[in-house]
Amino acid sequence: MINTISPIIKNIQSNSTPDWSNILGETLNAFDCPTGTLHRLDTESQILKLVAQRGLPDMILPMVSNIPVGKGMAGICAERREPVQTCNLQTDNSGVIRPGAKETKMEGAMTVPILHKGALLGTLGIAKPIPYDFSSDETAALTAISDAIAASWA
Fold first, then answer.
1. Separation between Cα atoms, residue 131 and residue 106, nearest integer Å
2. Residues 122, 93: contact at Cβ < 8 Å?
3. Which pTM value belongs to this model?
4. DSSP SS3 for 103
5. What are phi and psi of 86, to 5 degrees?
6. What is the pLDDT of residues 117-152, one digit of tens each?
7. What is the CATH topology of the domain spanning 2-153?
């Protein structure tokens, strides 16, 4: 997995203004996921603002453009400052998954926080159209990408 994500991290590190849509696309390809989001925290409002997305239906965009910390997968991930995942968005009853998430038609999903020196900067989320549990290696790899994003944003 590290060999797969190394070019993504180098792309982030070598650009003073990375193309976040492209970075997200490369990340989704590395994890074989058609859908994902990148949010940046507005520290004043404590709202996660959508920076880039791939694969979301148009009707979902208003719901994911501005996410309060503590609401939905990205918001819970931001609040806890730790990865959050579900094997199946369609059947999850944990209370973490918002009803609108089912409209994505995705199932296995994971969101990791983007942290710099303990400070929350945003979240990075990926999803698959099948039930899926992301491994600890995959979680570590997505976290490594989020760490590179954090260094770029700090």
1. 8
2. no
3. 0.92
4. helix
5. -140, 145
6. 999 999 999 999 898 999 999 999 999 999 999 999
7. Beta-Lactamase (3.30.450)
Distance between CA atoms of 49 and 66, rounded to whole angstroms? 5
Cα separation, 66 vs 71, in Å, equals 10
What residue spans define the domains of the chain?
2-153
- Residue of 35, 34, 99, 11 lying closest to 63 (CA atoms): 99
Cα gap 68→47, rounded to integer Å: 5
State the Cα torsion 117-119-123-124 to the nearest 10°: 0
Residue with tokens 């719901």: 63
Report how far apart, in Å, the C-alpha atoms of 41 and of each of 21, 26, 45, 93, 129 are: 17, 22, 8, 26, 27
